[in-house]
Design goal:
The chain is an alpha+beta fold and 374 residues long. The strands form 5 sheets. Strands 1, 2, 3 and 10 form a 4-stranded antiparallel β-sheet that branches. Strands 11-13-14-12 form a 4-stranded antiparallel β-sheet. Helix 2 packs antiparallel against helix 3, helix 2 packs across helix 5 and helix 3 packs across helix 4. It is elongated, with a radius of gyration of 26 Å.
Length: 374
């Protein structure tokens, strides 16, 4: 199985990742004119149905005569007594001499120009979550549609071409805190917490681009986090480490939001799909999830949906279009909580030691002092 992938004319993983990050932050980046003319190749080496894994895409090498040679699975050609070269892989593969010197070689994988064969990119999942669709009466009653434990569909991408082979779904610890009261009482504020870390990362990137050291960039990002977020809703130290690790990756904003909420135990994984492909061959996969307000919300959704006829045959939608709606009041009243296993949630409550509570208070005090200090 052979396909082509996006050309990466820059050199080195760090610069490639910084380039991808700049795109994710909406910063302008100029591509060299030669990038569009570059030939690329890809191959499904592990026979898993895609060419999305590291080492399965490569830039082709220019050869004498203007042809291109794919370096994936390439071998040197063999010369006979008359000096004529033949390909050990079969006569159907041409022997090509690299333009920069070296013995003729051949490859079973073809090259193609991405300028004339563009890669198809799936946009990130577009799910803002349940929004208010009605006002409040004089008694405080909601006049719109009520959804209980509603969530939001998000995707993150495992290692692949578009992420410069960084794992944008990697579990990095419980960054978003659960069960901490009003600071995370709605899906809107929970997403705001995730976006706040992205804002901090953007500040760190801008500082780094302006010539700051990695330490100085981390400080710039940390200041944004501490000023903009309530420490009872987020583990600041973990968020800073998370932010700096993503700084040199190809992960975008939705990758980061999903990774934070997934690692914090608030997401149900729906499935995987191809987010980047060429001629039907997948070059980058994505994992979609329904992310909820709290871990308890996720647990009740997972164990409550199978009880309801309204979800029969379509518990979570599809990987590309996850169904993350909340329960209606009628559905919620029909749930049999005696059949639910809430041990995971109880274990979290029991594990919350006195030291954790004390640390939360210290975070609050330190955050306040940083905002009022000259």
């Amino acid at each position: 199985m052979t396909a082509v992938s996006r050309h990466r004319p820059w050199h080195g993983r760090a610069s490639a990742a910084a380039f991808a990050l700049a795109l994710g932050l909406g910063l302008s980046v100029a591509l060299p004119a030669t990038a569009l003319a570059q030939q690329i190749c890809a191959a499904d080496l592990n026979q898993n149905g895609d060419a999305a894994d590291e080492g399965e895409q490569a830039s082709c090498t220019a050869t004498v005569g203007g042809a291109w040679l794919c370096p994936i699975q390439a071998v040197d050609c063999v010369a006979d007594a008359a000096g004529q070269y033949s390909c050990p892989l079969g006569s159907q593969h041409a022997c090509l001499a690299p333009a920069n010197g070296g013995p003729p070689a051949c490859s079973p994988n073809a090259c193609a120009d991405v300028a004339s064969n563009p890669i198809v990119e799936e946009p990130p999942i577009d799910d803002p979550g349940s929004e208010s669709n009605g006002g409040i009466d004089a008694d405080g009653n909601c006049l719109g549609t009520i959804e209980i434990f509603s969530g939001r569909g998000l995707r993150c991408r495992p290692p692949g071409l578009s992420t410069t082979f960084a794992n944008c779904c990697k579990d990095k610890g419980k960054i978003v805190k659960d069960g901490m009261g009003s600071s995370i009482s709605s899906i809107g504020t929970k997403i705001a917490v995730a976006k706040g870390v992205f804002t901090g990362m953007k500040a760190a990137y801008v500082a780094f681009k302006a010539g700051a050291t990695a330490s100085q960039a981390a400080s710039a990002g940390a200041n944004v986090l501490i000023v903009g977020l309530d420490p009872t809703s987020i583990a600041i130290s973990l968020a800073i480490n998370f932010m700096m690790e993503f700084l040199f990756s190809g992960c975008d904003q939705q990758d980061m939001e999903a990774a934070m909420l997934r690692s914090s135990g608030m997401c149900h994984e729906v499935g995987s799909y191809c987010s980047s492909s060429f001629l039907g061959v997948c070059l980058q996969k994505a994992i979609s999830s329904c992310c909820f307000n709290t871990k308890l919300g996720r647990i009740i959704q997972e164990q409550g949906r199978p009880q309801l006829r309204s979800f029969n045959g379509n518990l979570w939608g599809t990987a590309k279009k996850p169904m993350c709606r909340g329960f209606t009041p009628e559905e919620f009243q029909a749930l049999d909580f005696s059949k639910m296993d809430l041990s995971e949630y109880y274990a979290d409550i029991e594990a919350r030691a006195q030291s954790d509570i004390r640390q939360d208070m210290e975070d609050r005090i330190n955050a306040y002092l940083k905002t009022v200090s000259p």
